[in-house]
Structures are given as structure tokens and as C-alpha cells.
Amino acid sequence: MEDPRVPNMKIWQIIKKEDLEDQKEIELLKAEIQQYLTTNVANRAIAIDDQPLTQMTPIQVSGFFRKLEREENTRLILQYLLTFLSEIPAADKTRGGLIDPVKQFKEFLQNEVALLKEEDVIKAILHETCKIGLHEPDNYWYYEARIIDKCLELEFMLNEIPDDLTETYLHLFGILKTLCLFWFAIGREDVRHARRSDIFMYKLACLLQNKLQKEEKPCASETK
Fold this sequence. Notes:
Helix 8 (165-186) runs antiparallel to helix 9 (196-216). The chain is globular and about 50 Å long. It is mostly helical. 71% of the residues lie in helices and 0% in strands. It has one domain (16-216). It contains 9 helices and no strands.
């Protein structure tokens, strides 16, 4: 029997039905993401100005700035993806430079994956899954282990990145998609509960994988 709480289509299936190859749709997506980034930066500045840090406990202050740091990491990932959409740096453009875009993007992605080991993130995930009856408080340990397993799986994938630059990009975008799929599943595949940043990252990763596969025609297998 199907679970009535689970939509008939998963989020990645909904996205796949969109015409992401249409240049007008791509431009609309880019504009939407830029607006999202601009709004987030403005809201973050307001939050910092309005936050009475002197009235907060050290733990609250730490949590506040940790949240800002996470938001900044997500912003950098989205900005890099938008930049790659305009031009994916070739090998001869990255060697010897002061900034290695591949290395930096990989580090941002590693930071995003590492969140799955953070205590407050694990608690938030378990809280959400408990609300929809997936488990009871007495077997949290099992679902916590599954979260850690997913983190280790993604970390292993990052450590196995090949030396070839095209293959490296393909794998990085594939890992990002896998991480987004995890978050979509946590939200029970409900678009209303999915973070806009995850949807944006998934769409951009799809576009970039398609772009690389058309230009280079590599043999790497692609995650859905």
C-alpha cells in the first residue's frame, strides 16, 4: 500500500520534466537564483544588525554565527555553479593560478557534506522524520546511524575524485545532486518543504552535467 504522505512524483522527477535546455528557462532560473542570493545577503545583514549579541548566551552566539557560516557556504556553492554555467574552466586555465576553482568548489561541497555530522543538524533531521512517524524516540540511534552512513558515503565519493578535470567536474556535480536528493527525501519529496537552495543546486548541477556531457562526451556514469 502506498504511503499517502508521499507524493506520486519525487522532486527530481518533477525537475526532470522541466525544459532546462531552453535558454529562456535557463535565464529565468539564473535570475531567480540571483534574486534569492541578493535577498539572503540583505536578510543576513539585517539579522546581524538586529541581533542583540550582548544579551545572548555564548552557546546562542555560537549557533547564530554557525548558521551564518552555513548560509555563506551555500551562497558560495550557488555562485560557483552560476559561474560554471557561463564557463567551466579548462585545465590550462586553472594550473598555476592563485585560485583553483575546482579545489575551492570541492572544499565548499565538503563543508556541506560535513554538516550531516553536526549534532544540531542530526537532531533537526530526526525531529522532522519523527513528526511524520518514521520512527520513535527509542530507536533514534538507528536513523542517526543512517545519517552518518550517508555522510561517510558522500565523503568517500569526494575522496575518490579522479584526476581528469572533466571527470572531476562530473563527479562533483553528481555528488552535489546526491546530497540534494538526500534532503529531498528528508522532506518527504514535498516541494513545499524543500529548501529553495537545494532545488537551485540540483537544477544547476543537472544543467552543468548535461553541458559537460555534450561538450566532452565523457564515459562517466551519471546519477539521476
